[in-house]
Structures are given as C-alpha cells and as structure tokens.
Amino acid sequence: xxxELLSYRSLPAETPDGHRLVLRCNVELPSExxxxxxxxxxxxxxxxxxxxxxxxxxxxxxxxxxxxxREIATAMAPHEVxxxxxxxxxxxxxxxxxxxxxxxxxxxxxxxxFSLADRQLLKIQLRAILRVSALGPVRVMFPMISGVSEIRxxxxxxxxxxxxxxxxGIDFDGRLPVGIMIETPSxxxxxxxxxxxxxxxxxxxxxxxxxxLAVDRSNExxxxxxxxxxxxxxxxxxxxxxxxxxxxxxxAMCGEMAAEPLYLPILIGLGFGELSMNAPxxxxxxxxxxxxxxxxxxxxxxxxxQMSTVAEVTHCLEEExxxxx
Length: 325
Ligand code: PEP
Ligand code: MG
Description:
Blueprint: H1 2-6, E1 22-27, H2 33-38, E2 44-48, H3 62-76, E3 81-84, H4 112-117, H5 119-133, E4 138-142, H6 148-167, E5 178-182, H7 185-189, H8 191-195, E6 200-203, H9 205-212, H10 231-247, E7 250-253, H11 264-270, E8 274-277, H12 282-289, H13 294-305, H14 310-321
Parallel strand pairs: 1-2, 1-8, 2-3, 3-4, 4-5, 5-6, 6-7, 7-8
Helix pairs in contact: 3-5, 5-6, 11-13
Bound molecules: phosphoenolpyruvate and magnesium ion.
Residues 46, 48, 87, 183, 204-207, 254-255 line the site of phosphoenolpyruvate.
EC number: 2.7.3.9
Main location: cytoplasm
Protein name: Phosphoenolpyruvate-protein phosphotransferase
C-alpha cells in the first residue's frame, strides 16, 4: 500500500548487487519541491523553466528568474538542481513568443533553436542560472540539441554571461556542469561527438521516441505506434549510453520512460546513473530498483537487443518482471 511505498523514502535506490542510482524529480513550479522531497527525490533532474514564461505578455526578467531558481535550489539543497533553458515550441506553445505560422511546430523553431534565435533572452536566463549556482549545486541543460555547433554556440553565450558577471563582481560557480538533452535522432547518432562537449546527457524519451518513430507524441490517432520498447529505441538508448560511458560523462533519463517499472531492467542494464520523473512515481520505481541486479539487467538487455519486434521485447520483459512489479 501507500504507507509501505513511502517507507522506501529513506532507503537508497540501489540494486541488490550494489549499483547505486539517483532518483530525481521533474518540476514545473518551484512550489513542487517540498512534496518531491517527501517522496524521496535526491535533486531535480529537470526543471522545465518554460513554465515561468507561460501565460504572460513579457518574458520574466533576470531578477524574477533568479528568484524562482533560487527558491528551487534553496529548497532542494544540498541536492543538485538541473535547470533546463527555455523549451518553447512544439507542444509547448506560448502565444506571446512563439511563431504562430509554423506548419510543423515539432520540427520548427523550438527548444534551443528558439534560444539561439534570441540570444539576448538566452543570456539573461543564463545569467540568472549562473547567479544561483553561487548559492547551491546547480546544473544547466540545453533542450532539443541536434548538432555539435548548437551546443558550442550555447557554451559561447554561457561564457559571455560568465565574463559579464565577473566584470560586475557577481558570484557564480565557474565550473557548473553543462549538459544537453538527447531527444533528437541526430543527437543520438552523434552522441560520441556531443559527449566531448558536455558534462552530462539527459535523455528526453518523450521527444526522442516521437522523432525516432515519426509519431506525434500528442496525436491520438497514432498513439498505438508510440512504443518505448521499439527495437529502434533500444538501439538509440544503447548508442547514447555507450557514448557517455566511453567519454566518461554522466547519463540520465528524464522522459516518461524513466518512470515505468517494467522498463527498469533495461535502464539499469544500460548503465543510467540517474532517473528523473514526476515525484509521485519515485517510491514505486525505487522499490523495483532494489529488486533488480545490475548483472541481470545487463544480461537481459543483451537478449532484448537481439529481438525484432515490440511484442517479443514486451513479452520477455513481462516474464522477467512478473513477480516484481
Ligand atoms: C522529453 O522530451 O522527454 C522531456 C523530458 O522534455 P519535455 O517532455 O519537456 O519535452
Ligand atoms: Mg523534450
């Protein structure tokens, strides 16, 4: 029951053979943090900063952003908070700032593409994030990266923001970890190149699945094709995780796929060090993590990667997990 699940709050998310995972929360409003802590979240793996920009005429200024990020970082301290830069466009349409004439918004000016088209707005956001990094452990993460030049452009604006703050005598953590979402097929395919540019990856399966399988994540007519266990998705995840491992950088998952207990042997076998999800999912995921050996996840993954259909993968996983979820 609920009470039994909450008893997992104080136990580590560790496999029986000693492989430790970090379970973090996805947050849309600073006020969600206390509840997430109560569920056992060890940090914020994804703060969707676009929610500060929704439903208003002008974007929040540096001070307002600073206040919001500070509230999250302070509430979560000493745990780390991952702030994702503005991700508007696609299914997160903000009338005041998005183009309204895009025929295909999911493939349009969204995520980091929008930020790089309005670099002043991005720099203001990065200044606010940097200022909060002086107060507690903060990471910055860029969404919808599809090529190396985009992350280099983002880092160059980050360095400009750092130089400005230094000149103004304002404190920040000059070594704050810089990461990217892996949520486009191109990013998965060049994960080895991208891994040399950043400190961490976080896989956004909501978009990665949509783009890999060419299935609109919000279109009910093709929802039956939206399959996290599609062999193409398993291969993509494998490419991403092995690139991260070879480069020695951390790899997280913050899409909905991270919250489904049935998928955990795969995620453990792939070597994910962090899973970030909506806070209420944390206790259940933790309970299942504590029942799957890392060695078992790796073996099962090898088997699943040989399979050709979603049905085969699902059947095999369900057999393995029957008694545990
Ligand atoms: C994702 O794409 O998986 C993700 C976590 O980001 P969002 O759902 O905000 O697009
Ligand atoms: Mg996304």
